Amino acid sequence: MKWSAKQNRIFCLLMASVLALPLSIGSLTGLFLWTSPLLMFKTLVAGNAISFFSLLGAAALILVILRPRWYCRWLCPPGVLCDAASRKSRRNKARKIPRLGALLAAMILASALIGVPLLGLLDPIAVFHVFFDSFRETSILLILLKAAGLILIVGINFFTADIWCGKLCPLGGLQDIITDSRKSFLYKKTQKKSLNTGRRLALGMLAGFGIGLLFRKVSATGTDEIRPPAVLPIDQFQATCIRCGNCSRACPTEIIQTSFDPANLTGLLTPHVSFTSGYCLPDCICCGAVCPSGAIQRFSEEQKKNLVMGIASIHREDCLLTAQKECDRCRYYCAYDAVSIQISKIDFSAWPVILEDRCVGCGACVVACPVNVITVKPKEVSR
Amino acid sequence: MKRRKFLSTLAATTGAALIGSCQNNTDQSQKQQEKRLNSNGTIFEPGREIPIMAKTDVLVIGGGPAGVAAAVSAGRAGADVILVERYNHLGGLWTGGLVLPLLSTHAVGRNGKFRRTLYGLGGEMEQRLRDMGMAIHEVNAVIDPEAGKYVLDVMIKDAGVRMLYHAWAAGIKIADNHIEAVFVETKSGRGAIIPKVVVDCTGDGDIFHMAGESYRTMHYEIGLVHRLGNTHLIDKNKPGFKELKIGEPTPIPGVHWVNMNTGDPQDGLDAWNLSRLQQQYRIDIWEKFNKIQAAPGYEKLFILDTASQLGVRMSRMLDGAYQLTLEDTMTYRSFNDVIGLSGAWTTILYKGRKVAWDARPIWQIPYRALVPKKTDNLLVAGRCFSFEKILFEDARIIGTCLVTGHAAGAAAAVAVKQSTTTKTVDIERVQHLLKEQKTDLG
After folding, report:
1. Who has greater pLDDT, A328 or A32?
2. What are the tens digits of pLDDT across the range A270-279?
3. What string of H, E and C letters represents the secondary structure of B268-301?
4. How far, rounded to the nearest angstrom, does the alpha carbon of residue A258 sit from its chain's CA centroid?
5. Alpha carbons B393 and B141: distance in angstroms, whole number
6. Could you tell me which of A257, A255, A296 has the C-alpha nearest to residue A27?
7. Do B346 and A364 touch (CB under 8 A)?
8. pTM passes above 0.90
9. pLDDT for the residue numbered B397
10. What does the pLDDT read at residue B22?
11. 8 Å CB contact of A341 and B352
């Protein structure tokens, strides 16, 4: 029996679903995201996360160059769902709607070029992962927000068959652009069509540049949250992050959580760090390794020593040691020797002091403190 | 370093001297040795005949919580026991060191409920103090040190233990991994005690160090605790009164105990360092006290006492037959050779997550963690038993010392009764005896 494209897609759907489940499987967490040529191309243009896994996306890209819409026909998991929905649709294909997908793809790549890759979160593979990430959430609002994307792109196909895949999907749009330019390059025919594509491309790119620059201005507000180590500068970070939730899923101590700050809408659903139950392990590089967008850059254990997430501060009044009780947990657990116990020669009381030039804000002291008097304040680091 | 060197020199020389005394042609080798040692910055101490002070079944070195529990347990089990203590009191740091909280009496049981872990002799001591009104707080009781010394004296006396105060175990004679004699320095001079089994409750592991066992050392904070009197006479209505840190209440109204953390890791095995700290800390306490007393409202305070023992928190840790791990203690690990349970009193981080003190699981201590690798008639109890370093906060506290001490005493008694080594002792008999003595083995 011949392995058909359809069978392959269903197999991919199952595999991607398993990989997207909220289970930490190290650097394989959410691996399927790396196959998206759009995300790969975007990070390549923006010069962000290029890793071994990028080869998956690159391979897909080459196949897309050779065969029109190869990704859609062979891999795309949400595409399976969209097709199923389209078959139930009573209406015909929407002919009158322009192909916005190509426009979006152009916009994403253009904005990536100036370092604020916007709307990568519209990539269907990203949307698919965000849906699975909703399983992790406890707040109903976040569950709805995260689940909405996939439900929406599948749902609209019930009303107008094939509207997402054919007209709106930026990943599909990218494939169309590639196929069209390949045709015009090879055959120099179909003059009209390539002109059309060119116009759309130019328009999309212009919009990408414009919105990208505007976003930079708006986005610099959300700085009062602690972010995972090695994130891009905040404006770029919020634009680059595709909200796939890979970092949250991969984090072994589950400290990376979903940001929901109404005051910072541009940072909606981006990851932030909260030391309620655990801290950032000094030897863990998971979040950087699984980030397919490059919003969290890849880093090594060695580099991690210098990645500052924030600075701890101790509320001395309630500190056990200051109250002459037996405690040195913060100092004992600090892997960076950033806690020093000092003795006041005035009243001979001892208290822990954070050495700010050593502290990276990993939160070990926050978690270790028996009376919870330590907090980490974010530090905006320019890299 | 100096004391360790001193002790090992003593052990080596006495050992050599005793072997030498059996032979006649020792003069030349002794001279050679003398020459070699002298060039090393040392001086040769001539060997000599040492009078045998006593023979005994179980010899317990160190009268801290572990040593007392060990001696009482073995005594009650019918063994002939000698307890050697360098100071004039029992209870060690718990009483003489004024570290009054009996920590880790509770933890979370397998059913998820916060429960008591300390039973057995430790539990009995606590109950006796409670009956006297000399223990406060249900969880992690704080006791009165003088009452503690009294209760321990009574228990030791009633158990028929031969008590040797003011004596320092200064050396051992060891042959074929078997301790034949322990030499003690006393007011009557140097004497030898011939034991069947030795229990090392020195806290610093002096005996297993002299026996040549492998161990790790740890530098940690050293402090000197003191007590303040008349804390009930602080006049809070006095103009200019400010809340100052004056320690924690004890069972006696008006008396507080004041802990000392210094922040700097210190060598607890360096004699000069210990003396320097002792001196400095007492001066610090008085200077601090003078400032407190000068503050409005605190005029009637006085220093009741500074501890008669310097608070060495950690020094040596045995590399025993088994090293208890953090994972063992966090996962309700069961051991076939369990000899006790202990609890927790402070937060620990496990696999990157917080485990608060009142959420910590009870943990079993296996007998093998008290057994040194080589010596066949030595057991180790107290803060220097065999555990992974990160567990030191749980291992060094009074409750755990009481538990390990009790088990070591029981095991020593069984080993003597059955004429086995401490390595091959029938662990089921030990567990049976511990249960008879009301220990909870979880």
Report:
1. A328
2. 888 999 879 9
3. CCCHHHHHHHHHHHHHHHHHHHHHHHHCCCCCCC
4. 11
5. 17
6. A296
7. no
8. no
9. 95
10. 46
11. no
Closest C-alpha among B107, B137, B105 to residue B123: B105
Q: Which residues of B touch A285 (CB under 8 A)?
A: none
B264, B291, B346 member nearest A347 (Cβ)? B291
The structure tokens 């089921």 sit at B428
CA angle A257, A258, A262 (to 5 degrees): 135
Q: In the predicted model, what is the mean pLDDT of chain B?
A: 92
Nearest to B120 by CA among B345, B343, B407: B407
Mutate which: A274, A340, A343, A348, vs B, most B CBs within 10 A:
A348
Q: Which amino acid is at A14?
A: L
- Supply A301's token pair: 């254990």
- What are the pLDDT digits (tens) for B404-433? 999 999 999 999 999 999 999 999 999 999
> Quick one: tokens of A235?
């404006």
Residue burial A95-123, b: 16+ Cβ < 10 Å; e: rest: eeeebbbbbbbbbbbbbbbbbbbbbbbbb
Residue of B nearest to A282 (CA): B352
On whether the CB atoms of residues A237 and A268 are closer than 8 A, the answer is no
- Selection from B328, B323, B320 nearest residue B362 by Cα: B328
Which residue bears the tokens 């489940």? A21
Amino acid identity for residue B131 in this structure:
D
In chain B, residues with a C-beta closer than 8 Å to the C-beta of A370 are 346-347, 356-357
Classify the phi-psi angles of A91: left when phi > 0, otherwise alpha if psi is within -120 to 50, otherwise beta.
Answer: beta
Dist CA A129 CA B49 (whole Å): 83
The answer on pLDDT for A314 being more than 70 is yes
Residues in chain B, pLDDT under 50:
1, 18-23
Pairing between β-strand B378-380 and β-strand B189-200 as defined by DSSP bridges: parallel
The one-letter amino acid at B326:
L
* Set of chain B residues whose Cβ sits within 8 Å of the Cβ of A349: 245
More confident residue, B47 or A16: B47
Query: Which residues lie below 8 Å from residue A188, measured CB to CB, with a gap of 6+?
Result: none
pLDDT at residue B264 in the model: 86
Is A277 within 8 Å of A367 (Cβ atoms)? yes
CA-based nearest residue in chain B for residue A328 = B263
> Quick one: how far is CA B316 from the chain centroid?
11
Rounded mean pLDDT, A182-202 = 61
Q: Can you tell me which residue has the tokens 């060695």?
A: A302
Residue A80 C-alpha from the chain's centroid: 23
Number of neighbouring beta carbons within 10 Å of residue B78:
12
The pLDDT, as a whole number, for residue A53 is 75
| Nearest Cα residue in chain B from A352 | B263
Beta bridge partners of B332: none
Contact yes or no for B278/B224 (Cβ under 8 A): yes
Interface of B with A (CB under 8 A): 221, 244-245, 247-248, 258-264, 284-285, 287-288, 291, 346-349, 351-354, 356-357
Query: Is B343:B104 a contact under the CB 8 Å cutoff?
Result: yes
Which of A40-49, A332-341, B42-51, B254-263 is predicted least confidently?
Answer: A40-49
